[in-house]
Each structure stands twice: as structure tokens, then as C-alpha cells.
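ok so heres the complex, two chains, lmk if somethin looks off
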Amino acid sequence: MRVVSASCKVFATGSVRMAPQAFQDEVVSALGEAFNNTVIHAYRGRDDGRVTIEIEPRTDVLEIRVIDDGTSFDPASIPDPVLGDLPESGMGLFIIRSFMDEVLYRSGPPNVLLLRKSLLTPPLLGSTPAPPADR
Amino acid sequence: MKSTIQRDTDVTTLRIEGELDALSAPILRPTIDTIIGDNPKLVVVDVSALRMIDSSGVGAIVSLYKRLRASGGSVRLDGLGGQPLAVFRVLKLDRVFNVG
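and the predicted structre for the whole thing:
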């Protein structure tokens, strides 16, 4: 995740539309949820499994692929949570969809979750300075 | 993730530092159980040193909020910023906790 964070910061540096920190916050949030979903759902009941994360910077767009050999799923079958009900789970895919500009899924094997985020899209909700890192 | 509890007469402060995620949120749950068991009127969750949160971590804080509210107490979030604030905003929880 630290590699992805650093990649985001480097990639977004100089962007006039989106602050590097906001870009990083949103991509890292989405990727964290994608990784968790893969481990928890795709590899449910398995002691081990491989998750490959590919990061590809393109012109104004960062493309990330999360690749696994676990059980596939149909993202379209998963509804958004009812936020007013204050859910305690089931928010991961919503966070991914909210923070990324494009979310595509191809059932495998291997399963490939493709996430795209453009530097030309303003941050969804803004950002504030991050708290200090662990001492 | 590191958590500490400070108890005053009617206020309990829960300080959460580091990363609250799918791995660490279950570790926080017994701490939340302990806080709820004390039946405080107000719990201040100090997240000023919380660097990162995911939906599992959010779920733990929402659980604290709902359980405390059910027993007549309330929760206040202090120091929310950076990535955690972005996640709370996208889930519209900034309105629930009146932050940001």
C-alpha cells in the first residue's frame, strides 16, 4: 500500500485539478477495499492465495489492476448500502465506486478488477491535511 | 493500530492511532465492548493520530456510535482529517458525527 501511496503522489504531483494528497487518499482507500474484498471474499475458506496488483500510469489516468485466482463475483449484483441506516459492513464496493472514475471487473481465472482514476476529475469530496505518521 | 482509553466522570476518551482496518478493527472490538459496559454519557473518539481507515474500521466506530446511542449516550469524533475524513465524507458520516 505504501508503494501505491508513493506512486499516487508522484503521479499526481503537478496536477492542476486534483491535489496529490486528495488523489492519493481516494486511490489508496479504493485499493484497500479492493484488496480486502479479494482476501475476504475471493479467497474465503482458503489458507493462501495470490493477489497481484499492477499499477500503470497513463496520460492523466492512473490504472490499477487487482488480479486474483479466487472465486469470482458479479459486482452488478451488489447493491449500494443504505447509508442512512448506518451500515457496519458492506461499504467496500461503494467506496471503490465512489472514489474511482471507472471500475470494471472480468471474471477469470484470473479475475481482474480494473480501477481507473483521472487527474482531470476534481476530488470527490475534498481533502484536509493528513495527521502525522506513526512515531 | 494502538488504542487507549481515558475515563473521566462522564466522559470516556478513546484514542485511536495508526491504521484501523480489516486486520485491526477486530482487535478494537473488545475495547469498544469495555467502553459500552461502563455506560458513559459521552465518548470522545480522538482520531487525530489515525492515519488510515477502511470500511471495517468505519464499521467499528459506527458500532460504537449505535450501541452508545441505544443506551442514551453519545459519541463525538475529534481530529478527523486526511484519508479518514475522505472516507467518512463519502459515506456521509461526517454529517452523523458533525465533523469536517
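quick notes: Chain B has one domain: 2-96. thats all i got rn
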